[in-house]
């Protein structure tokens, strides 16, 4: 029998040692209230081109687009948010997906659009 742990150390180990297809699940980001009502989903996997709002940190409440996603490091790079190093070079500021919220989706991919519009097999409050 496989046991589930609540130890933070083991949770971190499992998260950082996960396979890439499992890490994709960690890159899901909450949808805004309007998008949640429209698509009936709470979160969606982040994609390049999505417009997001930052919820935590120094850049809180800024709305920018996703520039790059790094699955292995589990970070997201956003356009226009960079900091200057001591040698004068500019580096993009990394963000964790848990600190972001999608406010506008990039729907140029037909498969992604179809998946969003597909009804889920949710348990609803309606009884038959």
Task: Walk me through the structure.
Helix content is 24%, strand content 31%. The chain is an alpha+beta fold and 128 residues long. The protein has a domain at 26-112: SH3 type barrels (Roll). A 7-stranded mixed β-sheet has the order 2-1-7-3-4-5-6. The model is unreliable at 123-128 (pLDDT under 50).
CATH structural class of one domain:
Mainly Beta
Quaternary state reads single chain
Gyration radius from CA atoms, angstroms: 17 Å
In the sheet with the most strands, the strands line up as 2-1-7-3-4-5-6
Low-confidence stretches: 123-128
Key traits:
24% helix; alpha+beta; globular; 31% strand; disordered C terminus; SH3 type barrels; 128 residues
What would a concise description of this structure say?
The chain contains four helices and seven strands. By secondary structure, it is α+β, with helices and mostly antiparallel strands. The chain has a domain at 26-112: SH3 type barrels (Roll), CATH 2.30.30.
Annotate the secondary structure layout.
Layout: H1 8-16, H2 20-26, E1 28-31, H3 33-39, E2 43-45, E3 51-54, E4 63-70, E5 75-84, E6 90-95, E7 100-104, H4 110-117
Parallel strand pairs: 1-7
Antiparallel strand pairs: 1-2, 3-4, 3-7, 4-5, 5-6
């Amino acid at each position: 029998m496989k046991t589930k742990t609540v130890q933070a150390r083991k949770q971190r180990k499992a998260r950082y040692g996960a396979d890439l297809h499992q890490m994709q699940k960690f890159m899901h980001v909450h949808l805004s209230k309007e998008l949640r009502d429209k698509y009936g989903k709470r979160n969606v996997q982040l994609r390049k081109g999505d417009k997001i709002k930052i919820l935590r940190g120094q850049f809180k409440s800024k709305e920018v687009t996703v520039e790059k996603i790094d699955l292995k490091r589990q970070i997201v790079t956003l356009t226009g948010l960079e900091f200057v190093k001591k040698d004068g070079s500019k580096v993009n500021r990394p963000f964790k997906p848990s600190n972001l919220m999608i406010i506008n989706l990039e729907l140029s991919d037909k498969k992604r659009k179809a998946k969003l519009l597909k009804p889920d097999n949710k348990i609803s409050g309606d009884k038959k």
